[in-house]
Write a structure and sequence with these properties.
Strand content: under 5%
Order of helices and strands: HHHHH
Distance between the termini: 48 Å
Shape: elongated
Structural class: mainly alpha
Length: 128
């Protein structure tokens, strides 16, 4: 089930301890984080090479926590707390939305199976 922008903001504020899990944020805190969320979302759409086909009121489950943690990393300093580094939060968001379609480089004979010998050859190549 899709999440709303309010749920994203609330999760971000809960994550950094601005409010406890059984509390609602104060209106001013909610407004501040909501405004930052707009900027973060615009950045994601325009400069991160990520195709986003949904709006903030229909955030998919797979993007919910990564987006909330990215927002938390953006607003944490405003509230005088620390959060996950922005680069880690961005990496988590990108990993949730961009599929890893790289070929498995360990498959040396391209038979779509990785044998024990190919795993060992890959380990040796990484070591040397």
């Amino acid at each position: 089930m899709a999440k709303t922008r309010r749920e994203v903001v609330n999760m971000a504020l809960h994550h950094i301890g601005v409010v406890s899990s059984d509390e609602e944020p104060e209106a001013v805190d909610q407004l501040y984080a909501d405004q930052v969320l707009d900027g973060v979302f615009a950045e994601l759409q325009n400069s991160q090479d990520i195709t986003i086909s949904w709006g903030l009121d229909e955030t998919p489950e797979t993007a919910f926590l990564p987006l909330a943690f990215l927002l938390a990393s953006e607003v944490a300093a405003h509230f005088g707390v620390q959060a996950m580094p922005r680069s880690r939060a961005m990496g988590r968001f990108r990993a949730a939305l961009i599929s890893d379609d790289r070929d498995d480089r360990r498959d040396l004979d391209n038979d779509n199976l990785v044998s024990d010998g190919e795993i060992e050859a890959d380990k040796r190549a990484q070591y040397f």
